[in-house]
Amino acid sequence: MEKLEVKSSTHEYKIMIGEGVRYTLHQYLTKKYSSILIITDDKVAKLHLDAVKESLANEKVYVSIIPAGEQSKNIDVFYQLHTDAIQYGLDRQSLVIALGGGVVGDLAGFVAATYMRGIDFIQVPTTILAHDSSVGGKVAINHELGKNMIGNFNSPVAVIYDVETLSTLSDIEIRSGYAELVKEALISNESTFNQLMNIRLNEISKDELKKHLSFGIKVKAKIVEEDENESGVRKYLNLGHTLGHAIEAELSYGKLTHGEAVAIGLLFALYVSNKEFEVDLPLESLLTWFKNNDYPLDIRECTSKKLVERMKSDKKATNKKIQMVLLEKVGKPTVKDFDDEVIDSYLQSFMEKVIR
Amino acid sequence: MEKLEVKSSTHEYKIMIGEGVRYTLHQYLTKKYSSILIITDDKVAKLHLDAVKESLANEKVYVSIIPAGEQSKNIDVFYQLHTDAIQYGLDRQSLVIALGGGVVGDLAGFVAATYMRGIDFIQVPTTILAHDSSVGGKVAINHELGKNMIGNFNSPVAVIYDVETLSTLSDIEIRSGYAELVKEALISNESTFNQLMNIRLNEISKDELKKHLSFGIKVKAKIVEEDENESGVRKYLNLGHTLGHAIEAELSYGKLTHGEAVAIGLLFALYVSNKEFEVDLPLESLLTWFKNNDYPLDIRECTSKKLVERMKSDKKATNKKIQMVLLEKVGKPTVKDFDDEVIDSYLQSFMEKVIR
């Protein structure tokens, strides 16, 4: 089992990565809680809820199950979870456990952050993608007009990552998760990026997966320790996300997974970087790798104009300038503001020439 | 003008109390904001919005106006304000100004706390009651099942208190505000409490009011500096609030003002304290003072059983025990947990004998 520690602005917390840790969850409760609410989705519940409940047999445990999928990350489900928490009688000494992927983690984390002005929560991620969202304290729900627009910075008291739960992942979920791992390699480490470009996702071994996850979490943890509230280096983690979020919102969440949308965003970030800095980033090899691994790259039902509109209302935008994370080279990210027209023109040629 | 400073866990902020400060608001902007959203209600807008906008003539200013009253502190208005903020193009460098009473302050503060995971906000309180809510960083909206159940701790970057705006307050609002001032005296200072018992609210002078406000804010500021997240002494500020919140919720918010409900809660706290500690707190003189100043004390449409149910789901409750702030003597608060039946029996006799 691997153990990492992250310092947030309010407290330190442990990240445990290992096989079967979901069966020993009770060991990681840092204090006696008056009650525990497990928030999970209907898909994950079928697979892992019993094990987690068993591990908490000596606790007063309640469960709320939401429909799986990004659509659940909305204000109505958020309010319903508050209703559940009140009706179950959760108090300020209660704990929320987020059992699931990024959607469950973001949503349950935001419920915990706002229930009675904040109670403890633990992340139990069950997807590869959630290695990213479960660390760093970003919790949120979506607004119809933008992804993650309503939220807080609120770090969990622990992250319990059972890699066994990843064996049930679908190909789509593996793809989605690996897009973020590729991103973490792109912003930090060329040799890891090159290693990733040499794997095929349908042949990946458990040990490789564990190694990649641990790599991704370390990149993430290091950055959020340095800049929790995203005033500086944390922005680099948004590589691929400006366009990625816009695509997700424009397709109204769920048509592409988060990671799949980010994959297209990564290609666009490399494309723009090449143009802006006159460099030669591995756009072609990344494109090939995405194709070989069946990433869907077709966004023809979106217009560049609408995507630019979405990008303008992104959280990273300032004074309505679109902010993009670019790469001067692999491992060297930077941030740049753009006028709409510039991005629109880049996006049109990108959609016509690169991913068509 | 009086100037106070409060240290929150994240930053220090100033509280300015003076006449006409709403005209000079721009002086208290601590940095250049990309845009400003003033959130206010339809009553306050008519009286003070123009002055505030004028003072911000050199800024990019947007306005959202909500219906006056506690009913606006709900999830729908919260979401609508996020919609406004997105549509106005607010970004992470924007500022929210809460211009109004406690409802506007709590709601706008929570919108600011959650918009793109948090942007700056300034409190510009326009009621006496809001001297309490504008300091200390408690922001929230109500859930149908409980007051202030969904919220954050998030301190403003400044509190600008223009006492001139208080001259337009109705009798009800003056009563509501003074209930919190009486509470602050009860938990901290017997001689101020005695002074308050000698005034009549319809004869109060501007200077007296300023003195009382400044007293109340100092009591509040001292306590929240010591215990921002309410793990200890901050609980004392809830004197009268366990029953007060239950009454407000049971009458479905707005029938009694917050302060009027707290007034009944204060009487109940003194009543229970007298029984529990066998002391002789000034219950009779406070009751007389409330009656002389036209506080509505009739809650016969509530049953003790339902109120006890509400108290059990209060945020201060732990393990479903009802927690009440009591007084060993004036100026010496303490916290005690109760079983339902005990509170129910106290409440029945209180409703029959004291406030009937």
From TrEMBL, chains A, B:
* Encoding gene (name): aroB
Q: What general EC class does the enzyme of this chain belong to?
A: lyase
Record-listed Zn(2+) binding positions? 180, 241, 258
Q: State which pathway it belongs to.
A: Metabolic intermediate biosynthesis; chorismate biosynthesis; chorismate from D-erythrose 4-phosphate and phosphoenolpyruvate: step 2/7
What region holds the 3-dehydroquinate synthase N-terminal domain?
65-175
Name the major location. Answer: cytoplasm
InterPro entries the UniProt entry points to? Dehydroquinate_synthase, DHQ_synth_AroB, DHQ_synth_fam, DHQS/DOIS_N, DHQS_C
Q: Does this UniProt record's set of keywords contain Transferase?
A: no
Its UniProt entry gives the catalysed reaction(s) as: 7-phospho-2-dehydro-3-deoxy-D-arabino-heptonate = 3-dehydroquinate + phosphate
Could you say which cofactors this protein requires? NAD(+); Co(2+); Zn(2+)
Which CDD domains does its entry note? DHQS
Q: Which organism is it from?
A: Oceanobacillus caeni
Top-level taxonomy? Bacteria, Bacillati, Bacillota, Bacilli, Bacillales
**Name under which the protein is recorded:** 3-dehydroquinate synthase
Localization, per the record, is: Cytoplasm
- The entry marks the following residues as binding NAD(+), namely 102-106, 126-127, 138, 147, 165-168
Q: Name one Pfam family in it.
A: DHQ_synthase
Q: Which residues form the signal peptide?
A: none
Q: What are the residue boundaries of the 3-dehydroquinate synthase C-terminal domain, all occurrences included?
A: 177-317
Q: Which PANTHER family does the UniProt entry name for this protein?
A: 3-DEHYDROQUINATE SYNTHASE, 3-DEHYDROQUINATE SYNTHASE, CHLOROPLASTIC
Membership in a protein family = Belongs to the sugar phosphate cyclases superfamily. Dehydroquinate synthase family.
Keyword NAD found: yes
What Enzyme Commission number(s) apply to this enzyme? 4.2.3.4
